[in-house]
Amino acid sequence: MAMKPSMVDDVSSTAREQRARDAPLVSVVIPCLNESASIERCVQTALEAVERTGLTGEVVVADNGSDDGSAELAANAGGRVVHEPRKGYGSAYLAGFEAARGKYIVMADADLTYDFNEIPRFVALLEDGAELVMGDRMANIQPGAMPWLHRYVGNPVLTGILNLFFHTGVRDAHCGMRGLRRDVLPRLDLRTTGMEFASEMVIRAAKEHLDIRQIPIEYHPREGESKLSSFRDGWRHLRFLLVHSPTYLFLIPGAFMALLGAFVLLAVLAHLNVFGRSWDIHTMVAGAMLLIVGSQVLALGLAARAYGVYVLGERDRWFEWMGARVRLEHGLFAGSVVFLSGLIVSGVIVGIWADRGFGALSEARLAVLAATLIIIGIQIFFGSFLLSILGLRRR
């Protein structure tokens, strides 16, 4: 006999409550790829640290295709092993997060560079209301634990760029030992599969205005062979930072080129002396190129911001403020005005030519100005349509 809907609801509710009661307080998630030299000690230390402080916990080892027996060693040590065949640091963590059952997640690498006895300190901050707790290794790096290129160049530069772009205030953006509340994972919407996963978590946390706290920890020499490729993984981090910051990737360079190009155009047209000399047609062509390219880069930046707001659901106060006041018709009108201005200048050139009996013509400056205005007018006109198309997502 089929159960009534109310009975099904009661059963489902009871099952959810039972799972909630059985769930541990903390899940320690460890990604693993051929770490047979250290994974067993990592799992044992993590379990001991949790038990010693009276917490309820589990250790989830996300095995990323190990062929050295790491998965078996982890399971024998008391870890719960999940297998993720898709390669990548981020892929392993995403699988581990999916399997984790704890209210809190503490993540750390499987090479003994981090001390799992620090777990209770991370949990304490999460219990205090923190939503993401970042480890900070930079003042406590043990001899031989981090190559000088990473310690003095790579990590400081990438962390500085991340803080410049996203204002996170994090001192060690690439520390692999972190704690977070499991219920914030849907808000973070983490997607990257490689080493840039570390940057993505911090960026998404900053954009979601999570309560981010930091805790100093020690960093020890690793066991086994490093999987990190300094330049390849460094570039992947930098690339990720740039593509997630349209302001620094598009808008600032585009505005600089456009303003410089406009200044050069006006200086040549007005016969201004700059650096003690006057400039002619070749300089004007360079200025026109800068203005056209800068305008195009600005349009790409606005499209990237629109995609982030309308499709990815990001918050951008400036863009939202502009979107509430500037409509498609405004862009079409502005583009038409600039385009028609270029046509008018072209008409002036034709008039001069006719006045000279359609003979020799040497109005190169006006021709460059007319072409520049026409091109930019077309960019504004059709760029406005592109922004409007992206905006359809919010309707």
Q: Your description of this structure?
A:
- The protein has 395 residues and is an alpha/beta fold.
- The protein has two domains: 18-243, Spore Coat Polysaccharide Biosynthesis Protein SpsA, Chain A, CATH 3.90.550.10; 246-394, no CATH class.
- Helix content is 57%, strand content 10%.
- The chain is built from 14 helices and nine strands.
- A seven-stranded mixed sheet has the order 3-2-1-4-6-5-7.
- Helix 6 (148-166) packs parallel to helix 9, helix 11 (281-310) runs parallel beside helix 14 (364-391) and helix 13 (328-355) packs antiparallel against helix 14 (364-391).
- The longest helix is centred in the last third of the chain and has 30 residues, at 281-310.
- Residues 1-9 and 14-20 have low confidence and may be disordered.
Helix fraction, binned, reads 55-70%
Oligomer: single chain
Name of the CATH class of the largest domain: Alpha Beta
Unreliable residue runs: 1-9, 14-20
Tell me the Rg in angstroms.
Answer: 29 Å
What is the element string, with H for helices and E for strands? HEHEHEHEHEHEHHEHHEEHHHH
Termini separation comes to 45 Å
Strand content: 5-15%
Q: List how many beta strands DSSP finds.
A: 9
Give, in spatial order, the strands making up the sheet with the most strands: 3-2-1-4-6-5-7
